[in-house]
Amino acid sequence: MRIHIDFSIFTSTPSAEGVISGKIELSILPRTGEIVSFLASPNEHKFPAASGFNPLLKVENVIHHVNSQEATLELQDVVLPNKTSVTEVTAFLEQGFGLFFDPATE
Fold first, then answer.
1. 97 near 41, Cβ under 8 Å?
2. What is the pLDDT at residue 106?
3. Mean pLDDT across the chain, nearest whole number?
4. What is the Cβ-side half-sphere exposure of residue 52, based on CA atoms within 13 angstroms?
5. How many CB atoms lie within 10 A of CB 74?
6. Which one of 24, 27, 66, 89 is at 20 to 30 Å from 12 when CA atoms are compared?
């Protein structure tokens, strides 16, 4: 089942860095409070171990779309230590999962 997701990325300064969004493949639709793991990418792209990224993200909201089979998962925000970590994590999510990073405009 392909499910649309989105979540925000911040640095610990705090600074809004942007939003990750796109579709992922899951066997079932998770419920609010359940966890989605980004530990291992489908194409085995290397996990950014030194980035401070916790790949276990809690589902904060499940949005069911009227007159559609589709749903959107709003995942918890990710807070990373610095902009280098943001670059590493967003590259991992884009290349490993086919997601998109939309940087915040200043």
1. yes
2. 65
3. 93
4. 14
5. 16
6. 24
pTM for the structure as a whole:
0.91
For 33, counting Cβ atoms within 10 Å of its Cβ (0-12 exposed, 13-18 middle, 19+ buried), the class is: exposed
Other C-beta atoms lying within 10 Å of the C-beta of residue 40: 11
- How far is residue 83's CA from residue 105's CA, in Å, rounded to a whole number? 14
One-letter amino acid for residue 19 of the chain: V
**Residue showing tokens 């490993």:** 96
- Reading the block at residue 50, the tokens are 């030194």
The values of phi and psi at residue 23, to 5°, are -115, 140
Reading phi first (left if > 0) and then psi (alpha if -120 to 50, else beta), residue 49 is in alpha
Q: Which residues lie closer than 8 Å to 82 by C-beta, 6 or more apart?
A: 11, 12
Domain extent for 66: 2-103
Find all residues with CB under 8 Å of 33, minimum gap 6, and list them. Answer: 58, 59
Residue with token string 């290349």: 95
